[in-house]
Each structure stands twice: as C-alpha cells, then as structure tokens.
Amino acid sequence: MTDIDTHLLNDVAKVATDAGNRLLAVYSPDARPANRDELLKAAARNEEVSSAGLRAALQALRPQARWLAEDHETGALPDGEWWVVDNAEGSVNHVHGLPEWGVSVTLVVDGVPSLGVFRQPVAGLTYTALRGHGAHENGRRLAVSRKSGLDLAIVGTGQAEAGQAGTYARIGRSVTALLGKAFLVRVTVPSTFPMLAVAAGHTDAFWQYQPVLPGIALGIVMVTEAGGIVSAADGAPWTPARDSVLVAAPGVHGAAAQALGEVG
Q1: Which of 165, 166, 221, 236 lies most in the core, judged by the most C-beta atoms within 10 Å?
Q2: Where in the chain is CATH 3.40.190.80?
Q3: Is the peptide bond before 190 cis (omega within 30 degrees of 0)?
Q4: What CATH number was assigned to the domain covering residues 154-263?
Q5: CA distances from 63 to 56, 135, 199, 243 (A)
Q6: Tens digits of per-residue pLDDT, 76-110?
C-alpha cells in the first residue's frame, strides 16, 4: 500500500465531487415521483448523469485496479485492487427530494477496504478515509463513540435488496431483539449514512444482512479508521464473502454481536 497515499485520496475526492456536482445539477428538494415509472426514470437519469466519465477518471488514477461489476457485488472478491463504486448512493432519496444521497468510491485491496471517499453535495460534505491515516469529514478527524454496552446505545440496520423474504424475516427478528436491549433502534437506507454516523460517534452500531459491497465498503474503512470494530453480525471476522456486517464502537460491539448472534 506504499503508493496508496493522500495524493491518491485527494484525486479520488475530486472525481467524487465532480460526479456529485452533476447529480446536484439535476436535484430538486421539490421532487416527488407520482408513480413507479417516474421513479425509475429519475433513478436511471441519476445513474447516467453521475457515471459520465467517473469510471474513466478512476481507472486513469489506478490503471491496475479492476472495476466491480453489478453481478459481483456480493460474495467473495478475488485478490487485487478493485474500485467499488456507488455513483448514485441513496438515489431513492434524491428522486424524492431528500438530502441523504451522494457518490461513494472505495478502493478495496485484497479484500480490505483501504481508501474511501463519500461526497454528499447537498450538505457540502466530503468524507475521506485512508488505511492507517484516519477518517475525516471535511478535514476534521472523526472518532467513534465512547459508550459501553447497549443500554444507552443508538443502533440501526438497513433494508435488503428486493425479493429476499428470508432476509426480511431475519431483519425483523434482529430489530425486535435490539429493541429490548438498546436505547434506540433505527432502520434506514442507504447504508452509507448510518455507517458514517457510527464513524462520527453520533450513533453506536449498525448491522446489515445480505449487503452489497458498494453499499458498505466505504462505511467499513470509515468506521475502522475512526477507531471502530468491523465484523460479521455475529462477531466473526468480516470478509466480502460474509452475508452480514456489523460496525460498532469498541464498547458496544461485543454486546451487539452477542445480541445479533442469538438472532441467527
């Protein structure tokens, strides 16, 4: 990783900011899709607008890094360098006039998220993380919560992809289990925002079942570099092949993993 440095991080941040600006140009807080066709049309527009030139710009920065295709977003990831990108993260929020959307770019090296940038245009925020160099929000260093246990913890989970009835049931069981143990339980999409909240110490833990890698890779490097712990939901070591992820402050991780381990 000797040549994965702050210069590359700054260059990636510029690429993400440019893509975010393109999305901002077609954003309106008054957007309200009236039907499925309008929603899908707006989402497709977002993908096209943000992706224009994005892949080429990143590959110019790191020619040896491969591009994660949509059909490889879950499961084991071969060794080497991979650009893991969601060029319109939270697009469903964008098309409904909500501000929680942006551009997520992560460089995964041998299965480890090692460099990450998230640009949230509406708030004017750029989140960056570089393995061994910390996590930052607009240059301000982030640190996870100092809480211990679950009794005062704010925790949350996210929704799975469509058509996963078994996963939906698992999510429901996990929420029920944590409602009886944590101070507050949230369920939201996309995954990036609650993971950033853990990295910043606003909340204390986030888990997800059957996540796609572009939805969690950025959060993993952010939370790790902010001093948090990353694992599978039951506390086992996380790899891209795992069917769950848990990110948490050190004082909360053990109790959260125990509670989720009982869910199965």
Answers
A1: 221
A2: 154-263
A3: yes
A4: 3.40.190.80
A5: 10, 25, 30, 30
A6: 899 999 999 999 999 999 999 999 999 999 999 99
